[in-house]
Amino acid sequence: IAEWQRQIENWNADRLKTDQFIQLVKRYTDFSELTTPMLNEFIEKVIVHEGEGRGNDRRQRIDIYLNFIGAFEVPAHIVTPAEVEEQRRQQEEQAAKEARSKELAKARYEKRKAEKREFTARKKAGLLTPEELEAEEKRLAHNREWQKEWREKRKASEPEKPPKQKSIKEIMAIEKTGADLTPEEKERLAAYRSNIASYSVFVGIAFFFIVEAVSKTPNAESGLRFNTIVEDIKKPGVIAWALVPCFSGIVTIVVGNLIFSGEFVDHVLGRTSSILSFDKTLLLIIQFILAGFGEEIALRGFFFGET
């Protein structure tokens, strides 16, 4: 109870002081001149702290204690006209300082540029003194040394580049010598030869049509009759021979699965999973058609002597 009583007394005292300060403020709501008696009625004391910083960056804290309410600080969101004027003055001084610095920098640049042009002209004309020639050589040597160090630092900071791959020609030369190839080199060489074989199919197809056009051979006599495909399919044995590769593939998978206990199927699926997808089916069919067409041309042209 004593503590509560003390808090109530403090609150009543603060309220009394607040009322007295409000009455004082109401007495001076309208005045044209700030006088010493007015300041004495409002201000109890002023504490000036030691200044910090130098020049425009110097700051000094001043605490003002008012009668009845004690220390008073202006809220941070309130900006007085004096502060606005001070900010404007500082901005103008900073802008003038920056403009002056730019002018001086530009003047120094123009001066160095003119001196460099004059020095270069004298150097080309061979009018430099021995002292100037010696200083120029030292400057150039220093620049070369600095550039060399900079290149070495940049090279050291960069990640190490992977070794350059050997060309197909170099790999084939190594293979001819009987030396062992790395797995990557073997794969690249096999892919290159596969591409060559693919290109040969297109060359064979193009050559077939060129020979047929030059020799005026009708399609009906070439063994590749596009106009009679439907009739050829109806002939006995054609469909059976066309299904032979399908049956042979099925037999191969079944026998391989029996011998290798599923490893053969996993191997085949692993090799074909990258092409056996719906978005690549059309491309795969076109490749099979072209490959079969080229093999048919090669079979008839080179083995049967037909064109």
Work out the strand percent. under 5%
Tell me the series of helices and strands, N- to C-terminal: HHEEEHHHHHHHH
The side-by-side strand order for the widest beta sheet comes to 1-2-3
Indicate the percent of residues in helices.
55-70%
For the record, give the distance between the C-alpha atoms at the N and C termini, rounded to a whole number: 123 Å
Number of strands: 3
List keywords for this structure.
about 300 residues, mainly alpha, 3-stranded antiparallel β-sheet, about 70% helix, about 5% strand, elongated
Can you offer a commentary on this structure?
The protein is mostly helical and 307 residues long. The chain is built from ten helices and three strands, in the order ααβββαααααααα. Strand 2 (62-66) and strand 3 (70-72) form a beta hairpin. The longest helix is centred in the middle third of the chain and has 44 residues, at 81-124. The model has no long low-confidence stretch (mean pLDDT 76).
